[in-house]
Design goal:
This protein is α+β, with helices and mostly antiparallel strands and 252 residues long. The chain has helices at 2-57, 79-88, 166-182, and strands at residues 63-66, 71-78, 103-111, 117-124, 134-149, 152-165, 188-195, 199-202, 207-210, 216-219, 224-226, 234-243, 247-251. Helix content is 33%, strand content 38%.
């Protein structure tokens, strides 16, 4: 009887060990996946914070510059610059805080002492990757002061929506190549990208779009891009060549 029990238990024990090992491996891979996701989330939150600090503290962006001491004031926004940005960059990110891997839009809200919004300005890209093309998205804000004059400074908050997606990466590559061409630093470059949706280019609006039906689109830096798009999802190798004064030729 003992021999029969031992004969039966040995394979059962082996099966239990295998199941336990599989469970442990799945737990380990799941933990590592969550760890990588957490690191990625931290990275994009840090990028969002840096973007807001650059926008509010750089004289090339929105920061008020005191002409008497030739210095910027921390988190004090110049109302003239804010009006200019919301007009000129209503649908594209300004060069002073551009990220060629991510896309963003900023809203500055003037608030009263009761935390009620009294005025609002927005700038940056208007549309982002959606669905499968969207990899990550964060929303963040910092307090700012909005300077109208020496005697008038209002309370405010600067909010950012920062997106990591396929549309942002491809459009960023095109814009980066265009900028380098304009600076005469590089006239051709290559990259590889994986797309989960078809991509098209609207020459009339100068927009790169992703998806079918309801598309997400981004305005490009170069005024004209010779690009036939990608009709299906998949992995692509892309080469681009810049042509003066402001054209980009895209090849596969």
């Amino acid at each position: 009887m003992k021999g029969q029990i031992s004969y039966i238990m040995k394979p059962l024990t082996l099966v239990m060990i295998i199941i336990l090992l599989v469970f442990l491996l799945q737990s380990l891979y799941s933990y590592r996946g969550r760890e990588r996701l957490s690191e990625k989330n931290l990275d994009i939150v840090a990028t969002a914070t840096n973007m807001l600090l650059i926008l509010s503290n750089s004289k090339d962006c929105l920061s008020f510059e005191d002409s008497t001491i030739k210095n910027t004031q921390s988190n004090i926004i110049d109302i003239a610059k804010l009006d200019y940005f919301s007009s000129v960059y209503s649908d594209i990110e300004p060069d002073c805080a551009r990220n060629y891997d991510l896309g963003w839009r900023v809203t500055v809200k003037q608030i009263d002492r009761n935390d009620q919004i009294t005025k609002e300005w927005s700038f940056g890209t208007e549309e982002f990757s959606q669905g499968k093309p969207l990899k990550n998205k964060v929303e963040f804000w910092i307090p700012v002061a909005i300077r109208y004059s020496e005697d008038k400074i209002e309370l405010g908050k600067m909010e950012i929506t920062l997106v990591d997606g396929e549309l942002e990466k491809l459009a960023g590559f095109f814009d980066w190549s265009c900028k380098l061409g304009q600076l005469n630093e590089l006239t051709s470059s290559k990259t590889e990208i994986v797309l989960s949706e078809p991509v098209s280019y609207d020459s009339e609006k100068n927009e790169l779009c992703i998806g079918t039906g309801l598309k997400s689109c981004r305005k490009l830096v170069c005024e004209l891009v010779y690009f036939n798009g990608f009709q299906t999802k998949g992995s692509y190798s892309i080469s681009v060549n810049y042509q003066s004064p402001n054209k980009l030729l895209v090849g596969k």
